């Protein structure tokens, strides 16, 4: 039987990169998919591929920094697909800049999307997960939120915040059967990396045991594992960290 049969998954940032790969893998595993993203053209293309392949899938244009936008989209998805079981928060931006050049606006923009956006998605998916009597939240953090990195003070702060928030959400929601985890990928070859310089990428690549960046398709199976927990409800508040050679490149 398919691992996510009869499940409804909402994926923020599902129009590109990691979120799109998760959407494809979840759909292959039987889930109905809702992609929430600010990029309507890319979102429509992802939904087109999913529905052509026989999946139930819909798109909602959402800015994850807007509480109203996220709440309305979650309510609408829950109405159209008859509930929400799984939330994956993959919307994010990356904008490398030395701290000496970083403005307050730069800092606020990154923290708004990469940290507050994760909170708002969880906040407005929560009533629907509760209505189901349980569910899964999988936040996409980053190795940078654990190890730090240069030129990314705002991004590192946001991702460390996502890891902390994941632990807090996991502790608070586990008694309700809502299991919350984070995935902390290393560098993954997606459009997000257009936000860093070639020098930054070369330095990063040199640190990697496999000598290459990961792919979005290499991250998606971890999101499937966390959504389905085949061994039981054993994963609560964990941050699975590819990149250091332990799980994935
Ligand atoms: P991506 O650029 O391919 O996809 C990000 C998606 O988020 C895009 O579709 C974009 O439109 C959407 N988005 C951005 N701002 C938004 C907003 N305000 N509202 C709604 N949607 C918005 O990037 P990706 O690499 O797939 O990144 C997915 C997640 O993985 C991000 O949180 C990123 O920080 C994290 N991550 C990426 C890497 C990497 O190296 N690519 C490594 C670690 C963590």
From TrEMBL:
Residues 7-186 form the Ketoreductase domain. InterPro entries: KR_dom, NAD(P)-bd_dom_sf, Sc_DH/Rdtase_CS, SDR, SDR_fam. PROSITE patterns: ADH_SHORT. One of its GO terms (molecular function) is oxidoreductase activity. GO terms for biological process: monocarboxylic acid metabolic process. The keyword Nucleotidyltransferase does not apply. Keywords: Oxidoreductase. It comes from the Bacteria. The keyword Oxidoreductase applies. It holds the Pfam family adh_short. Belongs to the short-chain dehydrogenases/reductases (SDR) family. This is 3-oxoacyl-[acyl-carrier protein] reductase. It comes from Citricoccus muralis.
